[in-house]
Design a protein that fits this description.
- It is built from 2 helices and 3 strands.
- The protein has helices at 12-24, 54-67, and strands at residues 4-10, 30-32, 42-47.
Length: 74
Protein backbone atom coordinates (compact mmCIF):
# COMPACT_ATOMS: atom_id res chain seq x y z
CA UNK A 1 0.00 0.00 0.00
CA UNK A 2 1.24 3.48 -0.82
CA UNK A 3 -0.04 6.93 0.13
CA UNK A 4 0.24 7.88 -3.56
CA UNK A 5 -2.52 6.56 -5.80
CA UNK A 6 -1.98 6.93 -9.55
CA UNK A 7 -4.96 7.10 -11.87
CA UNK A 8 -3.63 6.62 -15.41
CA UNK A 9 -5.73 8.43 -18.01
CA UNK A 10 -3.29 8.24 -20.92
CA UNK A 11 -3.72 11.57 -22.67
CA UNK A 12 -2.32 14.87 -21.45
CA UNK A 13 -5.56 16.70 -22.27
CA UNK A 14 -7.82 14.31 -20.35
CA UNK A 15 -5.45 14.43 -17.38
CA UNK A 16 -5.33 18.22 -17.26
CA UNK A 17 -9.10 18.51 -17.69
CA UNK A 18 -9.79 16.01 -14.91
CA UNK A 19 -7.31 17.75 -12.59
CA UNK A 20 -9.02 21.09 -13.22
CA UNK A 21 -12.50 19.65 -12.60
CA UNK A 22 -11.36 17.98 -9.39
CA UNK A 23 -9.68 21.18 -8.20
CA UNK A 24 -12.96 23.03 -8.78
CA UNK A 25 -14.64 20.58 -6.36
CA UNK A 26 -11.90 21.10 -3.77
CA UNK A 27 -9.90 17.95 -4.49
CA UNK A 28 -6.25 18.76 -5.19
CA UNK A 29 -4.41 16.29 -7.40
CA UNK A 30 -1.21 16.34 -9.39
CA UNK A 31 -1.40 16.03 -13.17
CA UNK A 32 1.67 14.03 -14.15
CA UNK A 33 2.62 14.24 -17.81
CA UNK A 34 5.68 13.52 -19.94
CA UNK A 35 8.57 13.84 -19.40
CA UNK A 36 7.78 12.97 -15.77
CA UNK A 37 5.99 9.79 -16.90
CA UNK A 38 6.28 7.86 -20.20
CA UNK A 39 4.40 9.18 -23.23
CA UNK A 40 0.80 7.93 -23.28
CA UNK A 41 0.67 7.31 -19.52
CA UNK A 42 -0.37 10.74 -18.21
CA UNK A 43 -2.00 10.32 -14.84
CA UNK A 44 -3.56 11.95 -11.85
CA UNK A 45 -1.60 11.59 -8.65
CA UNK A 46 -3.78 11.40 -5.57
CA UNK A 47 -2.12 11.46 -2.16
CA UNK A 48 -3.80 10.26 1.00
CA UNK A 49 -2.68 10.43 4.60
CA UNK A 50 -3.76 9.40 8.07
CA UNK A 51 -5.31 12.86 8.37
CA UNK A 52 -7.98 11.91 5.81
CA UNK A 53 -11.15 10.51 7.35
CA UNK A 54 -13.28 7.79 5.84
CA UNK A 55 -15.74 10.50 4.83
CA UNK A 56 -12.92 12.39 3.10
CA UNK A 57 -11.99 9.29 1.09
CA UNK A 58 -15.62 8.72 0.11
CA UNK A 59 -15.93 12.36 -0.98
CA UNK A 60 -12.75 12.11 -3.07
CA UNK A 61 -13.93 8.85 -4.68
CA UNK A 62 -17.26 10.43 -5.51
CA UNK A 63 -15.53 13.46 -7.04
CA UNK A 64 -13.34 11.18 -9.18
CA UNK A 65 -16.42 9.35 -10.46
CA UNK A 66 -18.07 12.68 -11.34
CA UNK A 67 -15.04 14.47 -12.79
CA UNK A 68 -12.95 11.85 -14.57
CA UNK A 69 -14.39 10.75 -17.94
CA UNK A 70 -15.14 7.04 -18.16
CA UNK A 71 -14.93 6.41 -14.41
CA UNK A 72 -17.91 4.65 -12.91
CA UNK A 73 -15.96 3.18 -10.00
CA UNK A 74 -13.21 4.60 -7.84
Amino acid sequence: WSPILPLVLGSNGATLEAATRLRETGVLVGAMRPPTVPEGTARLRLSVSAAHTGADIEEIASAVIRCVPGRTKA
